[in-house]
Model the fold of this input.
Amino acid sequence: MMEQGDVAGAPLARLREMVRGARRIAVLSGAGMSTESGIPDFRSPTGVYRTLCSEEVFDLGAFRRDPSQFYRVMAPLYAAMARARPNAGHEALARLEALPDKEVCVATQNIDGLHQAAGSRNVRELHGGLSTMTCQRCGRRLPAEDFRESLLAGTVPLHPGCGGVMKPDIVFFGESLPEMALDAAMAAFMRADLVLVLGTGLAVYPAALLPQRRRRGSDLAIVNLTGTPLDDQAQVVLHARTGEVLPLLV
Ligand SMILES: NC(=O)c1ccc[n+]([C@@H]2O[C@H](COP(=O)([O-])OP(=O)(O)OC[C@H]3O[C@@H](n4cnc5c(N)ncnc54)[C@H](O)[C@@H]3O)[C@@H](O)[C@H]2O)c1
Ligand SMILES: [Zn+2]
Done:
């Protein structure tokens, strides 16, 4: 059964009840979770793929052939992420996790670190994070902060130790997901009473599989501005902003 409506309607009340009643909650978040923090998503009309670049830029082979294109395109995104602060949605999820009777796991496709900045602790970064970088020649891992100037200027950051190209610890197309994060997230989704899909179009696999692997009998709720392929399986669908809906739930 599916219900749709604006933020003030019955679906919201229903979702509130679900959140109140659930003990184990598994969240899958995506780029939409952070648009209200000023970071563009990828696939919306204002998203990165329409305004800055194509998916090719995040292809591992393309990066290895010529990292300069990636860093040129990423400069404004790095700047946006450096400025960004958690929004009301991130903060509400952190409060939810802090409630004594809840067990919350946030599996995120985001690389911006904003869930952690808001205070969420059980966060699984399915696509890695921008905060660290690894040298492609010697394998040394360093804080991205060390390369701040180069990242903001859009030039290729080189490891001062060996001259190798630094690559952010994010998952490119053509790379596999961090196994530990994916396994932990999968376990949480298989145990959850309630699965929340927040700000993701569910177009990127295998992350999009997580809500499909939910336990039989568990509830599925989706808060996303636009439709997703799982809308017709969800008990509640709200085509609304996560930053507006989530504070009303906790
Ligand atoms: N903030 C980030 O870290 C960031 C930003 C852009 C892309 N990415 C990466 O891009 C990939 C894209 O996948 P995706 O599905 O997360 O992004 P996506 O761009 O495919 O989809 C984002 C979805 O969020 C919705 N949306 C936008 N603003 C919203 C809001 N305020 N409230 C509710 N919904 C909103 C859009 O309608 C869209 O369906 C991910 O792998 C992720 O790693 C990360
Ligand atoms: Zn090196």
Notes: Strands lie at 24-29, 103-108, 123-125, 128-135, 141-143, 166-170, 194-198, 219-223, 236-238. The longest helix spans residues 67-83. The chain has nine helices and nine strands. Confidence is low (pLDDT under 50) at residues 1-5.
